[in-house]
Design brief:
WH-like_DNA-bd_sf; transcription; two-stranded antiparallel sheet; WH_DNA-bd_sf; 2 strands; 10% strand; DNA-binding
């Protein structure tokens, strides 16, 4: 583990490269092509690997893509808090016992977070 060959980065767990690329795209001023992503990663991944990762992330609806020249330029569909909210919704949608899940979630909140959630749910308070 950790061996490096030209154009290939060290092996990482599934999802680690996606997270790294997502973070890179979130920091960018705009959408990036696979070539630009490859360069910003310091060429540690082969161009084809970057294209594959970006394509998979687009298929998972994590990224948008728009044509730019002969390639696509990719951008995240939301920011980091938006992705966290999507994950939370996804977990909730997988469960039939939504009320129980939400009740357990609310029970685990700190008093400060519970107050913040109340404010967000009822902005007129």
């Amino acid at each position: 583990m950790g061996t490096r060959t030209p154009g290939h980065g060290p092996k990482r767990p599934n999802g680690a490269r996606e997270a790294e690329i997502l973070e890179l795209l979130q920091r960018a001023d705009g959408a990036l092509t696979p070539r630009e992503v490859t360069e910003r990663l310091g060429n540690e991944l082969a161009y084809n690997s970057v294209v594959t990762i970006l394509t998979r992330m687009h298929a998972k609806q994590l990224l948008t893509r728009t044509p730019r020249g002969r390639a696509y330029a990719y951008a995240p569909v939301t920011d980091d808090p938006g992705f966290a909210a999507r994950r939370m919704r996804s977990v909730l949608e997988e469960r039939a016992d939504r009320q129980d899940v939400l009740a357990r979630f609310a029970d685990g909140l700190s008093a400060t977070d519970a107050d913040l959630l109340r404010q967000l749910l009822d902005p007129g308070q």
